[in-house]
């Protein structure tokens, strides 16, 4: 048996029928197409809307890191998006530092906030985890609402500048240029998420998602991993919230309210959890739809997005991306079997 | 450092677990000597799995103590107990369905190294455990299924993977919860041979209903009934014990 074993060690392992996203060629092709679309977006879409799509996409990815890869449904992620929006604004207004530095500061504060919140919520699972995170987010909302001297209360934080050293005038002249100035921040965030998901840490997260008791029996400190994932996720939500605030030039209570937490979960589930691509697709869909409906003067945006959400969740359990991927895989398998039988 | 040959590797004293007034495990004194294979038997509801969960930290005892390898581990968390050298398999096959067989073993091997915390490294880092993982899979007869998803394995293969995972932790004490549950005769014999092979030089505690399995593997047997120890001794001693015959073997035979 041992001779047979030694032979096998370096041999490429037999795998299950290869799937979309597993084959390197397909993965690279998707990445290139995704990058081209991202870079071309402000040519086709009103640039501020393109920026919103990018920010919401990263925000949804941060939720996916928890929901899709760790099995935790956070219903309070607006706390991190909003806290970073305000912090970014305060840094940019008061220091005059370049906006990427302000956004980084916002993300760091969001992560610091996530440490105690994560520590206190990861002991709960399922709906209880969602409720605890919601409760903390409501607390942050309440504090922001009351602390007028800093946050501006209901008026929000106005006049967040888009400083960028020698490029400040260019970036301010047109939101088209700001898109390209801020996009690297979003892409870095997406890269961090991708790296995390495809790391030894990501493997442990998936194990925890699928079977926490088993992961513990293997010696993994499940709570500690969950807290780390929570803090990382909050950092990504913070990057996204900071970009959003600078792009709009203000931070308001809208960034902290519970419907924002709900919207980002909706986007993530709509696109397909556990895929990273799904949240991007979901963000593009929901943000552009909302923009279309708002500019056509329609007031019941929530009814439309809510109805679409219900339909998608009922008809396509794995979200748009997950369903499309499964469909393509099934088709590929059928074709391969057909080719074999010929 | 106490002499391991003198003090048992695992020792419980008056170990008790109550669920809302119901005593699932009641004042159990158990001593498992180093290097022996110890069976826990008893009818359904006798408290075997509860005892396992107490020993591995998944449940906290209501009273009593657990000593392992010379130290008190009562009330410790499962992951801490795993790091001390206690590995377990689960009664209900419990795997990560979306993960390949070899990934499972690599994950188990990576556990004591802290590699799992490195979110900035490539998952390819896990490959450093591949050779060892393949050797373990060879040991349990799963080498040719290394690339398959755990969800696609046959039942007996899943049980074999459970065993490989427990072995990957290189435990001082191996706890197997019904390693042959739900198996056909052929698989049972293969599992007996497998457990015999891996128990060489190890201390093993296992639960099983199958008296053939108990008789072939166990050096010592503890019979539980209603959470209490009914009898302890070698298989032959226990088998002929009058109380055991009436309580358990009598029904089965």
From TrEMBL, chain A:
Keyword set includes Transcription regulation: no
The organism's place on the tree of life at top rank: Bacteria
One Gene Ontology term, aspect cellular component: plasma membrane
Topology versus the membrane: Multi-pass membrane protein
CDD domains noted in UniProt: TM_PBP1_LivM_like
GO molecular function: branched-chain amino acid transmembrane transporter activity
Keywords associated with the record: Cell membrane, Membrane, Transmembrane, Transmembrane helix
PANTHER family: ABC TRANSPORTER ATP-BINDING PROTEIN, HIGH-AFFINITY BRANCHED-CHAIN AMINO ACID TRANSPORT SYSTEM PERMEASE
UniProt name for this protein: Branched-chain amino acid ABC transporter permease
Organism: Knoellia koreensis
């Amino acid at each position: 048996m041992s001779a047979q074993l030694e032979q096998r060690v370096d041999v490429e392992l037999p795998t299950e029928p290869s799937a979309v996203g597993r084959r390197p060629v397909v993965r690279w092709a998707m990445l290139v197409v995704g990058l081209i679309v991202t870079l071309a977006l402000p040519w086709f879409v009103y640039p501020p809307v393109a920026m919103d799509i990018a920010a919401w996409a990263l925000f949804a990815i941060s939720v996916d890191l928890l929901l899709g890869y760790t099995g935790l449904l956070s219903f309070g992620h607006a706390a991190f998006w909003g806290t970073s929006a305000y912090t970014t604004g305060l840094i940019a207004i008061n220091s005059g530092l370049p906006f990427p530095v302000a956004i980084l500061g916002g993300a760091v504060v969001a992560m610091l906030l996530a440490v105690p919140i994560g520590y206190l919520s990861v002991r709960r699972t399922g709906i209880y985890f969602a409720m605890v995170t919601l409760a903390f987010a409501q607390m942050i909302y309440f504090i922001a609402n009351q602390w007028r001297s800093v946050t501006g209360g209901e008026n929000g934080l106005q006049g967040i500048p888009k400083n960028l050293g020698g490029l400040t005038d260019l970036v301010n002249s047109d939101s088209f240029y700001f898109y390209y100035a801020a996009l690297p921040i979003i892409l870095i965030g997406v890269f961090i998420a991708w790296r995390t998901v495809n790391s030894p840490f990501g493997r442990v997260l998936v194990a925890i998602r699928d079977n926490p008791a088993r992961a513990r029996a293997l010696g993994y400190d499940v709570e500690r991993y969950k807290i780390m994932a929570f803090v990382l996720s909050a950092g990504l939500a913070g990057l996204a919230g900071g970009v959003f605030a600078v792009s709009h030039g203000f931070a308001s209570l809208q960034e902290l309210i519970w419907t924002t937490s709900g919207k980002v979960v909706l986007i993530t589930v709509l696109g397909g959890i556990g895929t990273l691509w799904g949240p991007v697709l979901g963000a593009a869909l929901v943000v552009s739809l909302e923009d279309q409906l708002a500019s056509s003067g329609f007031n019941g945006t929530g009814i439309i997005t809510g109805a679409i959400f219900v339909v998608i969740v009922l008809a396509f359990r794995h979200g748009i991306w997950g369903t499309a991927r499964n469909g393509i895989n099934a088709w590929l398998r059928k074709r391969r079997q057909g080719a074999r039988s010929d | 450092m106490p002499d391991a040959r003198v003090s048992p590797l695992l020792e419980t004293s008056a170990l008790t677990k109550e669920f809302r007034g119901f005593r699932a495990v009641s004042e159990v004194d158990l001593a498992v000597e180093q290097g022996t294979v110890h069976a826990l038997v008893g009818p359904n509801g006798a408290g075997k799995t509860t005892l396992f969960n107490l020993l591995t930290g998944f449940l906290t005892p209501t009273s009593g103590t657990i000593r392992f390898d010379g130290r008190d581990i009562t009330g410790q968390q499962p992951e801490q107990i795993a790091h001390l050298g206690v590995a377990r398999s689960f009664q209900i096959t419990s795997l990560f369905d979306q993960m390949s067989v070899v990934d499972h073993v690599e994950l188990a091997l990576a556990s004591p190294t802290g590699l799992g915390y490195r979110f900035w490294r490539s998952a390819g880092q896990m490959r450093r455990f591949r050779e060892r993982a393949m050797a373990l899979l060879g040991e349990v007869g799963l080498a040719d299924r290394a690339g398959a998803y755990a969800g696609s394995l046959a039942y007996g293969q899943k049980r074999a993977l459970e065993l490989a995972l427990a072995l990957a932790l290189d435990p001082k004490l191996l706890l197997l919860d019904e390693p042959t549950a739900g198996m056909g005769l052929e698989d049972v014999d293969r599992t007996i041979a497998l457990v015999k092979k891996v128990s060489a030089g190890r201390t093993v505690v296992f639960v099983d209903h199958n008296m053939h399995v108990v008789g072939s593997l166990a050096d010592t047997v503890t019979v539980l009934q209603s959470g209490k120890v009914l009898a302890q001794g070698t298989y032959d001693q226990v088998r002929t014990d009058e109380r055991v015959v009436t309580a358990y073997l009598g029904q089965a035979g």
